[in-house]
Amino acid sequence: MRRVTWILAIVMSAALLLAGCGKKDAGSVVKDLDHVIGKLESYQGTGRMVLQTGQEPQEYQVEVWYQQPHYYRISLTNEKKDITQVVLRNDDGVFVLTPHLHKSFRFQSDWPENQGQVYLFQSLAQSILLDTERQFTKEGNSFVFDVAANYANSGQMARQKIWLDQKSLAPQKVEVSDSSSNVLVKLDFTQFEFGKKLEKDSFDMQRNMTSWDLKSLDKDAAVSGAATEPAAASPDGKAPAAGKDTPASAQAGAAGKDAAAGTPASGASAGAAADGGKAPAASPGKAAAADGSAKAPAAAAGSGGAAADAGKAPAAPGASAGGAASAGGTGDKQPAPAAAGTAATGAAGADNKAAANSSAGFGLIEPSYMPKGVAQQDIRDVKLGENTGIMVRYQGTYNYTLLEVAPQTQTVSVLPGDIVDLGYTLGVVTGDEKKTLTWTYEGIEFRLATADLPHDELVKIAQSVAEEAGK
Questions:
Q1: How does pLDDT run across 381-395, given as a tens digit for each residue?
Q2: Which of 9, 45, 115, 171 could pair with 152 as two cysteines, CB 3.0-4.6 Å apart?
């Protein structure tokens, strides 16, 4: 009898032990997750991200690479618009690259340690570890955590649900919601691998810029009628310059200074190629270059302004050295170019806008959102080296300026800054007392500068630009 009792006790203890081993609670999963973070060396993941932060959903293909101690590469591709942006962190700093425009922005930052990102495993894991009021459930082969969303540049995001694989704890899915439980961001990982072996130069800035060129050689050749070469490194080794056969519109130039509130940015840049590089622009014999190494022919209109569109009409005679002539691009009427840095002449605001559009060579895109108590003051065209841009000033409750320019050069800056996800593109905020949000969309570079605009309002204005551009 005693023997039977002992056998029964042993069997029951074993059964309880096995049952306990097969059942994980929130505490044990969090402990395992902390262990994974502690020994994390590298990972690679891909997925599909949908953003609902604007009027229309924006879809991206996401690829993320990480290698200890602080190397990151995030590729965001909008397949509908055929645009790819790359966020890169290496020993030289943090980069936001727009390869198809030969544009890069380099700045010093602790990113992503100072701001979470929904596509980074470290950000997701930390949000679970730090939320002591986390909610935990199981769904199929997934552990599901409902925790507070901690994204520095988005006040809208309140909560997030994170699905982790029960075996590896790799992220499977993320949903970020606002305070009303509306899903703003949805990310589905299609693949995620810990311990992925990455090539030594995977995080090299030049490789990430030129890899896009290599993929698009045939396409570029068909457009320009001549073979192109991938961008070559500039003398400082930090920023790639355009290849020797690249049209002047892609040649490296000097970085313009960020616009302060009410003040247009300035700086030398390479001359614009006529009509997007289809035909060479006339040159007075000297080239504007970033450091004397980039020898792109400067466009000339009269005595040195931006060239008129090639093959459409000759440059307007008498154009000043700071002005620009435009022909054939905006209908039959060709308003005279305004002087650099002055408001276009005309009694009505419509005349100002038309003149500014003519000088800049592109149409003004005004934000659809304006903070309460703010009114547009004026629109003027400005000169940035060889580029002509449009500056719009707003005054009232908050004061800010929006500068738009079609950059003909690659810009590299070294400033303290932070990345801002605008939903349709990535931007960079620089400055403390006077902040400038810089981003590129559909070939236009935007700089929103202010000394008093709150961060959330800054982002709303920038996001509304895409809504107007899409009309």
A1: 898 877 789 999 999
A2: 115
